[in-house]
Design brief:
Elements (H helix, E strand, L loop, with lengths): L1 H47 L2
């Protein structure tokens, strides 16, 4: 019965890890897209208004 509890704990830990990874990856993707948009706008500004 002890190994059964260990397997349940491992499954729950894996599910929580996946959920946390998805949240962090989503946040990183949003930050990356935001930085890319800022870089593009800055490049357009310097090319057009320099």
């Amino acid at each position: 019965m002890e190994s059964f509890a260990y397997y349940i704990f491992c499954i729950i830990a894996a599910i929580i890890g996946i959920v946390i990874f998805k949240k962090v990856a989503g946040c990183l993707m949003k930050s990356l897209f935001f930085a890319l948009i800022i870089a593009v706008l800055a490049a357009i500004y310097f090319w057009c208004f320099k």
